[in-house]
Each structure stands twice: as C-alpha cells, then as structure tokens.
Design a protein that fits this description.
20% helix; 239 residues; 10-stranded mixed sheet; 10 strands; alpha/beta; Dihydrofolate Reductase, subunit A
Length: 239
C-alpha cells in the first residue's frame, strides 16, 4: 500500500492503515458519526441487479479496512434493504447493531439478530402490531417518527440510552441521505474500486431526494492511500 497524502499526523506503516484510527472527541449531545462505503468509479454500490449485495465490489484489503473501522465504533447502523440484500452480513460482537426500517419486513432469522441484546430496530409508529411483536422477539424495537423514522431521534437515543460515542453508518444510499440531510455525518471513509457499472436506477453512496444547493455538504480530504488501483479516501466535514 502507498501513502499518497495524510494530514492526520499518522506516520505508521501504510499496511496498518485504520488499525488504530483516531477520531476527535464526540460532541456533548450525540455520537461522532462516520460512514464507510465502497463504490465503483461511477458511484454505484453494487455490481449486480437492484436488491443485490455489494459482493465482489471491494478487494480483500477493502474488507480488512472495513473490519478495522467497525472495531473502532460502538454501534453500526444500516437500512433494511442492506440487511435483506446480504444474508451473511455480520458484525463484531461488541457492537450494537441497529437497522432502520419503514415497513418492518426484515429477515428475522438473519445472523444480525443472533444476539438480541445487541440488536436494535428503529421503525415508525405506524408499524402494524403483529410486525412489532415479531421484531420484539429478536431485537429491541424503538418506534420513532410517524410515517418515517426520525434519524435525529435515533441518534439521540443511541447516545442517551446506549452510550454510543462513535457511530458507523454503512448505508445504503437512502439511509446515508437521511444522515446527510440532518447534518449528522462528521467523516466519510470512501473506497473507490476501479470498476464502472452504469445504470440509472442502481443505488449510489447517497440517494434520497437530494440536498438543496445552499445545503450541499462540504468535506476536506484527510488522507488518501493506494493499493493496486483501489483508492482509500478519508474526508472530514467542514463545519
């Protein structure tokens, strides 16, 4: 691995990238929130059809770095589509794992729910009672928002009820958008895979309705590393 630029002050061997990644102290009222995403050069999250997983997109090195970032977090949060797309998705045992769902149609036999004490589901209050009961058997269910999950309230609950100081957001694109829309993303870790997929209706790193011009989120580059033709980028939000 080659170090192209590093403004964080870290001088370790490039092969140890993110092993002991350092973050600023979290704000007093919420966790420090960072995303980690691998995309094609044209910004796509998958190589297959809509609803498929990101399998084959990132290299083994990307997978290794992903696990190092997960180890640094106190909790990880994903959208229901991300959970449904990957039947083998799993996380380190120390993490609270949270999933955001509108309709509650989650695969309840998924390894994500193997430890119900660490599994959290956030859904809107209109979720049918039978679906609520099913989810409560495998996870702790929180109802936040009437028709759509209130991401700011989710973050507040993770901070106050679960003492989460560092929160990792792993998509998909719609969930990422809600966090960007709320102005909650502090850092972005982005792997650029040297591949082009195309497709007008495939998920990207950030989907949703889009931000108005005057609220476009701006970031500054902290570091860039190269392994083969794969780029590993780290950005911090300009406040």
């Amino acid at each position: 691995m080659i170090r192209l630029i590093d403004r964080t002050g870290w001088t370790g061997e490039p092969e140890q990238l993110y092993e002991e990644v350092q973050f600023p102290t979290p704000p007093p009222d919420r966790p420090y929130i960072f995303t980690n995403t691998v995309t094609t050069l044209d910004g796509k999250l998958i190589l297959g059809e809509p609803g498929s997983s990101a399998k084959g997109l990132g290299s083994p090195v990307d997978q290794q770095l992903m696990h190092r970032l997960e180890a640094r977090a106190d909790a990880v949060i994903i959208g229901g589509g991300t959970l449904r797309a990957d039947p083998h998705l799993n996380y380190p045992t120390h993490l609270y794992r949270a999933v955001v769902t509108t309709g509650g149609d989650l695969p309840l036999e998924h390894p994500f729910f193997a430890d119900s004490r660490r599994a959290l589901v956030f859904a809107p209050t209109h979720l049918p009672p039978d679906r609520q009961l099913a989810l409560q058997r495998v996870a702790t269910l929180h109802l936040v928002g009437e028709t759509q999950v209130d991401i700011s309230e989710v973050v507040r609950m993770l901070h106050t009820a679960y003492e989460v100081r560092y929160l990792l957001v792993e998509g998909g694109g719609n969930l990422n958008f809600y966090f960007f829309e709320a102005g909650l993303i502090d850092e972005v870790f982005l792997t650029l895979a040297p591949k082009v997929k195309g497709g007008a209706h495939l998920p990207t790193m950030v989907d949703g309705a889009g931000l108005p011009r005057e609220r476009v989120a701006e970031f500054e580059l902290l570091s860039a590393y190269l392994e083969g033709s794969e780029l590993f980028l780290r950005y911090r939000r300009r406040r």
